Amino acid sequence: MARMQHSTIREILKITKRPEIISFAGGLPAPELFPLEAFRESLNQALSEDSTGCLQYDVTEGYPPLKEFLCAWLSRHGLSCKPEEMMLTNGSQQALDLIGKAFLNPNDRVLVENPTYLGAIQAFNAYEARYTSVLMDASGLLMAETEQKIRKDHPKFAYVVPTFQNPSGITMTLERRKAFIKLAQKYKLPIVEDDPYGYLRFSGDIQPSLYSVAKGRGVVYLSTFSKILSPGIRLGFVIAPPEIIRALVLAKQAADLQPNSLLQRAVYCYGKNGHLDRHIPFIIESYRQRAGTMLAAMDRYFPSSVRWIPPEGGMFIWCMLPNKISAAKLFKKALAQNVAYVTGRVFHANGGGDQTLRLNFTNSTPDQIEEGIKRLGKVFSEAL
Amino acid sequence: MARMQHSTIREILKITKRPEIISFAGGLPAPELFPLEAFRESLNQALSEDSTGCLQYDVTEGYPPLKEFLCAWLSRHGLSCKPEEMMLTNGSQQALDLIGKAFLNPNDRVLVENPTYLGAIQAFNAYEARYTSVLMDASGLLMAETEQKIRKDHPKFAYVVPTFQNPSGITMTLERRKAFIKLAQKYKLPIVEDDPYGYLRFSGDIQPSLYSVAKGRGVVYLSTFSKILSPGIRLGFVIAPPEIIRALVLAKQAADLQPNSLLQRAVYCYGKNGHLDRHIPFIIESYRQRAGTMLAAMDRYFPSSVRWIPPEGGMFIWCMLPNKISAAKLFKKALAQNVAYVTGRVFHANGGGDQTLRLNFTNSTPDQIEEGIKRLGKVFSEAL
After folding, report:
1. pLDDT, mean of residues B303-314
2. Angstrom distance (rounded) from CA A89 to CA A222
3. Are A57 and B232 within 8 A, CB to CB?
4. In Å, how far is A206's CA from the nearest CA of chain B?
5. Pairing of the two strands B140-141 and B130-137
C-alpha cells in the first residue's frame, strides 16, 4: 500500500472539469458518440428476456452467451479463442489487478514499454512490482534492448500495448510483433497484451494481435468495451489459456465474486443485435476527423522543434519537446491559457520523460481542438 | 495466490443448479421478489436524466448524489455519516478485498468469529492473512476469549458480522456490542463491521450497528444492495473515517478505477423514488414466512439431538449435529435425496466445525422448504 499513489490523471481530470478549460488531458471517449438509444433498448431487452438472470448472482467466469458472442466477434477480427479461454472483468483495469494478484510476488519485475500505461503501473505497484522499461521507436519495442534486459532482469512477464499505445500512440509493426513473440518464446517470457484501442483504427493496415501471432501460446490478451461502447458500464475481457483463466477466476472470486449480471446481458443483446458492428465505424470516423484536425493544427501552430508520431488509431498523440523544456513547467502556463494535457513523466515507470506530454483528441470537438492547439502552440513558442 | 482456493460455496452452487435439487446451500435472495419493474423504470430514468453520466468514466469514490441519498437513508436507520466518509464498491466482497489490499501485510492476523463468512476468508487469504478465531454464544462473540486472544495474537483488525451472521444467524446483543467496542478501544483494535443482512429483520428488536455504538470511531462499516435490491448489479458501500476512505479509494483506483456509472445512477433513482423503503418490508415479510416454515419443519422432522439457533432476520439457520456425526458425510446422503446444504467446516478459518451445517431459507419456496427439511430429517434420523 505504501507504494500506491493517487492517480495523477484522475486528479488532473478533476482540475480540468472546469468548463472554460479545453482539456486534452483525459482518456475519455467522446460522450456525444455513446449509442444511448441502442444501449437502452438492449438493457430493456435483457431485463425482459432474463430478468432473474440480470438481477441474481451469477458465475465468476462471465455470462456464457456473452462469451460465445465475443469469441465469434473476435474471430471475425482475426483472433481465435474458445469460451473457456475467456473471462469477463470490470474493464481492463481489473484484469491488470487480477494478473498482479495471481502472478506477482513483491520485487518481481515486469517488462514494460517506456513510456507505458499509467493504470498498469498502479495495478502492479499494489503487488510491489518493479519495472524493466524498454524504449520504443516508431515500430514499437526495440528488440535488442528487450533481449538484453530480459537476460539481465529476468522479468516475470512483459506488459505491452502494441496497438495505438497509451500514451505514445505507437503501433508495433508486424515484423516487430513476430520478432517479439520469437524472443518471448525463446526466453519463456509470458506476455500480457493490452488492447483497448485496437478496434479503433482510422488509417493504415490492420496488424494481428500478439495473441494471434503467437497462436495464443504464452500471451494473455486484454480488451474492453470502454472505448467501443461505454467505459461507465465497466466491462472488459481477458483471453488466456484455460489454466491462466482458472487462476484469474480464483482471484476474481476473492476480489468481487463476479462481473455485473445485468450489464453482461445488456452487452450481449447489444452485440447480437448487430449494434457493436454498426457503431464502431461511426466512432472511428469521428476520431479520424479529430485526430486529423489535431495533427493539422499541430503542423500549423507548434514550433518545428516539437516532434510527434502521427497515430493510425486510438485516442492519443505523444509530443516530445526539445531539450531542457519541461512539460511539467509548461503545464502551468498552458493551464493559465485554459488548456490542459498530461505530462509524460507519469507514464515512465522508472522516471524520466520530462520533455514529453500526451494529447487526447477524442474528448474535444474539432473547434476546441483547433483553438486548444493554437493556444498550446503559443505557450510552446514563447518557451522555446 | 498459493493460499487461494476455489470458492467451495460457488462450486456447490454449480452442483445444486440441477432442477430436481432442493437447495438450502446458496446465499441467494429470492428471485421472485426482485423489484423488476421499479428497477427497470429507475434504469430508464437514469439514462434519460443523465445519459452521458451513465455511460462515461466517473469518480472513484462513487456518484455523489447516491452517496448523499445513502447518508440520509442510513440516518433514518440510526447510522450517522457524511458523504466523504463513504465509498461505493462492487458489493461488499470488493470492500473486503480493498481492505486487505490497503491494510494487510503477509502473516498479519485478523480476528474473526468462529464460524465466519467464507468470502472474507477468501478475500484476506489473497493477502496471506492468518486468523484468530473466537467462539460465539447466542449473544455473539465471547468477550473473555476475545480479550485473551487480542492480548496474545495482536490482530491487525477484527472482522465481524454482528447482525444475522453468515453462517450462524446469530445477532450480537446490545450489551455485547457495547462490551466489544469498549474492548476494541482499549486495545486500539480496528473493527470491520460487515452488515449485508441488518436491514432484513423479521423479529426481535433492532440493534444499533457497532459503527453507531462507537460513534464511528475505529469502525469500518460495510453494507450492500445485494440483499435488499439485487446482487447482480454488484453495488455495496463502505463507511469509514475520511483517511481510511482515501486509502480505499487508492486501492480501488488500482483495482478497477471506479464503481459502475450506470448502476449507481439507477440505484439513486430507485432510492429517491422511494422504492427502497417500499420494497424492503415486502422482502422481510416473505423471509419471515420462509424462516418460520423452515423452523417449524425442523421442529417436526429433525431428531431432537440436532440443535439450532432461530435467527431474527437475514437468510440462514445454523445447525449443530450431535457428536461425531460429520456434516460432510451426511451431505452425500442428502444429495442422494436431492437436498443440499453447506457443510460448516468451510466457515471455520482455522479448521473444525465438522458437525455443523448452514441452511438457507430465502431461495426456496415454503413448499420446497417443507419437503427439503422432511428429507433432511430422514437423512439425519437414519445417521443417528
Report:
1. 96
2. 10
3. yes
4. 27
5. antiparallel
